């Protein structure tokens, strides 16, 4: 079965086309991206601007066409924090529906955390034991911890790399004082979430997902993307500190020249690195393993589980939107 996953994030719109079959891992067939920086197309009232909504509608219409010509039997379109938090979210969703025929589904932050956790669990398997997962997006940080396919704790915090760049690090490069103040602020923000995560148990395996973690791991010497998804990649706290000292002195244009750093992510890389560092420090983690699967793969896996008639009460495969044992979203 060929599926298309259309991901509308804070920075990009991403279409992933995969072949997915029972008993096999999803096989990527194509990947198409467009940089929209939706989170930057906001007015002072927190509304997505008319120009931003129009760009989004055109991009989704184009990507839906690509999915059709690619032979997708189903398109799974979803949006995350930028649309979730927009004051005019309903109006933008209606405009997208009218202009493209695509009915975007807005995911709750805790559902992002749960689906990403499912993907990491399937990637590493049951032998991994208790997994703690961190995922840094443009608008939010998702954190989860659990022994099964459903995390015992799933958190979504408004600590995304793009958000913190806009709020804290407007200068290019950011000043030393501003970086130090943001470090202290992040430490304070993560005290309670870290206690919640660790209250259910110390992890046997700590995992990082998302482009931010992959880029940081590459900068500390992990294998390039050309080595394939199965190459082992890690991010250490000591390596991360060295990277922060290096990239925080560079302009966004200079950071974009580094291997593993895309031009559309270079501006928010420092903030993302500081979130990663603060999270690892709060959770007393020396090393994170980098998982190639994340939210999109989690959606595909949940789709296959649902189509195969998996009991929603077994193995942690509850329908999205049903509250779990411990879920929280930052105000």
Detailed description of the structure:
The protein has a seven-stranded mixed beta sheet with strand order 10-11-9-6-7-8-12, with helices on both faces. A five-stranded mixed beta sheet has the order 3-2-1-4-5, with helices on both faces. It has twelve helices and twelve strands. The termini are far apart. The protein is α/β, with parallel strands linked by helices. Helix 1 (50-69) packs across helix 3 (89-100) and helix 4 (109-124) crosses helix 12 (295-307). Mean pLDDT is 92; it is low at 310-325. It has two domains: 2-107, Nucleotidyltransferase, domain 5; 124-295, Nucleotidyltransferase, domain 5 (2-Layer Sandwich), CATH 3.30.420.150. The longest helix has 20 residues, at 50-69. Residues 17-305 form the Ppx/GppA phosphatase N-terminal domain. One of its GO terms (molecular function) is exopolyphosphatase activity. Residues 308-331 are annotated as: Disordered. Keywords: Hydrolase.
β-strand amount: 15-25%
Our measurement of the CA-to-CA distance between the termini, rounded to an integer number of angstroms, reads 39 Å
CATH superfamily of the largest domain: Exopolyphosphatase. Domain 2
Please state the average pLDDT score.
92
Sheet with most strands: 7 strands, mixed
Q: Which overall shape is indicated by the principal axes computed on the Cα atoms?
A: globular
- What CATH calls the topology of the largest domain is Nucleotidyltransferase, domain 5
Structural class: alpha/beta
Q: Quickly count the domains.
A: 2
Total number of strands: 12
Portion in helices: 40-55%
Q: What is the number of helices? A: 12
Rounded to the nearest angstrom, the radius of gyration is 19 Å
Strand order of the largest sheet: 10-11-9-6-7-8-12
What oligomeric assembly is this protein in?
A: single chain
H-E string? EEEHEHHEHEEEHHHEHEHHHEHE
Low-confidence stretches: 310-325
Tell me, what is the CATH class of the largest domain? Answer: Alpha Beta
| CATH architecture type of the largest domain | 2-Layer Sandwich
